Amino acid sequence: MKTNTDKYLVKSDKKVKIKDFDTDYNGHLDKEAGKQELDAVKEELSEFQEVLYASNTHSVLVLFQAMDAAGKDGAIAHVMSGLNPQGCQVYSFKTPSSEEYDHDFLWRHYKALPEKGRIGIHNRSHYENVLVCKVHPEYIMSENLPNYSSVDKIDKGFWKNRYESIRNFEKHLTANGVTILKFFLNVSKDEQKKRFLDRIEDPTKNWKFSSSDIKERALWDKYMDAYEDVLNETSTDYAPWYVIPADKKWYTRLAVSQIIAETLKGLKLEYPVLVQEEADKLAEYKKQLLEEK
Predict the structure, then answer these.
(1) What processes in GO biological process is this protein linked to (predicted)?
(2) Residue, of 280 and 233, whose pLDDT is higher
(3) What is the pLDDT of residue 1?
(4) Domains along the chain?
(5) Would you give the end-to-end CA distance of the chain in angstroms?
(6) How many angstroms separate the Cα of 45 from the Cα of each of 5, 80, 259, 263, 265?
(7) pLDDT (tens digit per residue) in 115-132
(8) Which is deepest, 9, 47, 152, 184, by most CB within 10 Å?
(9) Cα angle: 8, vertex 9, 11; to 5 degrees
(10) Residue 201, exposed/middle/buried by CB under 10 A (0-12, 13-18, 19+)?
(11) Which of 3, 51, 35 lies closest to 268, judged by CA?
(12) CA distances to 15, 58, 232, 238, 239 from 11, in Å
């Protein structure tokens, strides 16, 4: 099944509203059919990853952003299950350390970029600096920025500059062979509530729940505004955002995997071809091996 990527893609020339994206879309599939599709896509991913690794000319950076309980960890786990761990790196970003606060906000993310031939997956990303920090501008104070000595100095111009820094950062990466895919897992508020209750009621899932989850849920509308701004300000032709339905975890995993596979296929990478001198040596090596006793 070919994914209709336009259904999820945030085009750079159009403004979007998050409410216009269906959180419960399932691609007209049932769960069993979706799992079968996912198994097939995993095989493709494995093949594409091998060529990516062998060619050693490109890398792929996959970013996941979402509200709590949207299924980022599960989506990453399922994408990873179709990949060779040797060619894949996963980073989960938490609250910055004191060392990280002593650098610019992109520093720790730049350090975590995948090398050529590899796929890098970032669970949360540099976008936390225009999402969580926009909802909680007091966090910016920890950066000790010149001219921003108090929260009331953080104005529209500040955020405009942040978006521009991010666009320039991603443009620089793509110019140097990094293909960037950005996924916003779009879960509904009702579905988040169900998943929170499940975590509370199931002792084996209690560890997943935090009191901060409830505090952040109370700020849902502010987060949706922040996400909407991010989508409209930073979805570009070279680093697009995809808004993925997240109320059905199995479909989220399928859609994400299909988009990654299609993107890798679109790179049209090929295995390296040996120069004639090296190719000629292979015949001699083969002869030596066959003559071994």
Answers:
(1) polyphosphate metabolic process
(2) 233
(3) 44
(4) 5-290 (3.40.50.300)
(5) 51
(6) 17, 10, 10, 10, 9
(7) 999 999 999 999 999 999
(8) 184
(9) 145
(10) exposed
(11) 51
(12) 8, 24, 9, 11, 10
CA distance 154 to 137: 7
Mean pLDDT of 174-182: 98
Tell me the whole-structure pTM to 2 decimals.
Answer: 0.93
pLDDT digit string (tens) for 56-77? Answer: 999 999 999 999 999 999 999 9
> To the nearest 10°, the Cα dihedral for 114, 160, 234, 73?
60
The single residue listed with the structure tokens 């790196």 is 89
Provide mean pLDDT across the span 246-273: 94
- For residue 171, the tally of other CB atoms under 10 A from its CB is 14
Residue type, 119: I
In this prediction, residues 16-24 reach a mean pLDDT of 96
Torsion of CA 167, 51, 260, 6, to 10 degrees: 80
The confidence score (pLDDT) of residue 153 equals: 96
Nearest to 181 by CA among 229, 108, 235, 253: 235
Q: At what angle do helices 31-55 and 249-266 cross, to 10 degrees?
A: 30
Contact status, residue 200 vs residue 206, Cβ threshold 8 Å:
yes
Residues in the chain: 293
The three-class DSSP label of residue 123 is strand
Q: Is 242 helix (H, G, I), strand (E, B) or coil?
A: strand
